[in-house]
Specification:
Blueprint (H helix, E strand, L loop, with lengths): L4 H11 L3 H16 L4 H28 L20 H7 L3 H4 L3 E6 L5 H14 L4 E5 H13 L3 H10 L2 E7 L6 H14 L4 E6 L7 H4 L2 H11 L3 E6 L4 H12 L11 E3 L6 E3 L1
Parallel strand pairs: 1-4, 1-5, 2-3, 3-4
Antiparallel strand pairs: 6-7
Helix pairs in contact: 2-3, 3-6, 7-8, 7-9, 8-9, 9-11
């Protein structure tokens, strides 16, 4: 006996990798029948649903592959808290045309002023617009490069880092690098020069990057490549986290002082009693 049509249809849709149509075709058929929509209209609805769902899954996969430590968006960035940040430039960068041009972005400023938030938001926008993204802290990337070198897979990792459309390197300057680590990091920037876009966040001004890279020659060569086509975002101000911490302490209700019990003496026994 041949299989029922429903079973064959489910099998074929799975083989064609059309999970949304498989999940929705029966419900959409009922809706289209009620609305007196013809067969082409019915198929159009199903195909549109499949395309929308497929794009959503693709974006979700890009976000997972980027390995963001958190999901941040431009909409949740508080520009009023850091007036030094060029809001119009950030919004322009969120259109991701800088990635098409292979420009770089450098965010400089004090710790806790939103540099990572802005970098993550631009990375999320890039994923949503179809670009591959990878996120690392500077120290984490150097550690990964060292591991790859020790395991003789450095060339493969370098090829992967070169191929990604947007590479985000966060917290450059928080941890001084070894000579080998600085050279490996420089190689990443050098290999990506004019081949892909890189976002770097740092708590140090450019003239202090030598303290991280350990060499004026290497720092000069790095900045020469990184700042060739660059957009600079300045985050000057107090730390968000410090402000929020202070605000929480101010708004917290004062601790209640336990009431002191009233004492009295039993006139018959002379014992001290609490009331």
């Amino acid at each position: 006996m041949s299989a029922p049509p429903e079973m064959l249809l489910a099998h074929h849709l799975k083989q064609l990798k059309l999970p949304t149509i498989l999940r929705e075709y029966d419900k959409v058929a009922a809706l289209c029948a009620a609305e007196k929509i013809d067969h082409p209209g019915y198929l159009l609805r199903l195909v549109e649903m499949e395309l929308i769902d497929r794009e959503r899954r693709v974006v979700e996969r890009r976000i997972r592959e980027a390995r963001f430590p958190a999901i941040k968006s431009i909409d949740t960035f508080d520009f009023t808290a850091i007036p030094s940040v060029n809001k119009m430039l950030v919004l322009e960068l969120a259109r991701c045309e800088f990635i098409t041009r292979r420009d770089n972005v450098i965010a400089l400023g004090n710790s806790g002023t939103g540099k990572t938030h802005a970098a993550l938001a631009l990375g999320l926008a890039a994923c949503q617009r179809g670009f591959s993204v990878a996120f690392y802290t500077a120290a984490g990337l150097v550690h990964t490069l060292n591991e790859a070198r020790d395991e003789r897979r450095l060339l493969k990792l370098q090829a992967q880092l070169q191929a990604v459309k947007l590479l985000i390197i966060d917290e450059l300057g928080y941890v001084p690098l070894s000579r080998t680590g600085a050279e490996l990091l420089f190689d990443v920037f050098s290999q990506r020069h004019e081949r892909g876009s890189t976002i770097v966040t740092s708590n140090l001004p450019f003239d202090e990057w030598t303290s991280v890279m350990g060499s004026e020659r290497l720092t000069g060569a790095l900045l020469d490549r990184l700042t060739h086509h660059v957009h600079i975002l300045e985050f000057n101000g107090d730390s968000f986290r410090l402000k929020h911490s202070k605000a929480r302490r101010k708004s917290a209700p004062p601790a209640e002082t336990p009431a002191t019990p009233e004492l009295s003496i039993d006139p018959e026994t002379g014992e001290i009693l609490e009331s």
